[in-house]
Amino acid sequence: MATVKTIDTQTLSDWLATDKKVSILDIRPLSERTEWHIPQSIHLNVYENLKAGNRDAFDFLLLDKLLPIVTLCAGGNLSLFATELLSENGYDAYSLEGGMKAWNFAWDTAIIELGNVKIIQVRRLAKGCLSYIIGAGHKAMVIDASLHPSIYLNLAVQHGYVIEKVADTHIHADYVSRTKELAKATGAAHLMLDLAEVNYDFIPVKNGTELLLGNTPIKIIHTPGHTLESTSFLIEDSVLLTGDTLFIDSVGRPDLKANEHETWLKAAMLYDTLHLITALNDNVEILPAHTSKSIEIGQGIISSSLGQIKKSITML
């Protein structure tokens, strides 16, 4: 039996970030890949053969044997068998430890700068979740934290910031917010719109409140529709963090976790909110909390001007 080698998500991330040539084979069923995947990966329809224990599952494969191959499955188990077979066929093969469940927490960053303000977009690559570190002077505010607090702490230190405020744009339904943990780990003020109904303590802020991060103004704007407490953050009248209210290619859904009556109510709110946002200057840059596609490592910042979004989304 050939020795089965494994690779962790951080090493694979480093390989991709440095443009190391590698073949990534996704052996999951196509239905699972459609939901989320690594953009640089190749899908092979071998799942059933591998589940059946067929040792000739890769006999058809003709890839460059000088390049490493990383196999991935849902949880990192079936890929061990795949890696064993590929190694026996002469490939330098590795199994991704933890599979896509582990890749769910792989991340990278992109940066936008506005004079003395730096906005670091922290991206969960697989699910397209976007969080932000806003830095001004030596102070920082984190919005929509979705990764372990240590990641935001380390990034803040690298950029010379101390995290003094944290917040969420809304109560997230599709992932567990790490904002509460981050507030505890840093001692930062945990801010949330005063209308939010949650079972933990926070510092309530009202619609229209203008926060100061150092000398940088951040305006709180109540933008209900996706959720009742949805909030956007306007930074120096130039950048708007919109949460799940407005994306760069679509608008937020009012029907999640809502009955028919609640959906109509939230849809009406969303209609008014979108009119409020689209009345801003077309040059305002929109930074959402999600993107609809898996993110490629090293991809540019996920954002668009409000003017461009108004042109591309017909309902606006």
UniProtKB/TrEMBL annotation:
The keyword S-adenosyl-L-methionine does not apply. InterPro entries: Metallo-B-lactamas (IPR001279), Mito_Persulfide_Diox (IPR051682), POD-like_MBL-fold (IPR044528), Rhodanese-like_dom (IPR001763), Rhodanese-like_dom_sf (IPR036873), RibonucZ/Hydroxyglut_hydro (IPR036866). SMART domains: Lactamase_B, RHOD. One of its GO terms (molecular function) is hydrolase activity. Residues 18-112 form the Rhodanese domain. The keyword DNA-binding does not apply. Keywords: Hydrolase, Transferase. Pfam families: Lactamase_B, Rhodanese. One of its GO terms (biological process) is hydrogen sulfide metabolic process. This is Glyoxylase-like metal-dependent hydrolase (Beta-lactamase superfamily II)/rhodanese-related sulfurtransferase. It comes from Runella defluvii.
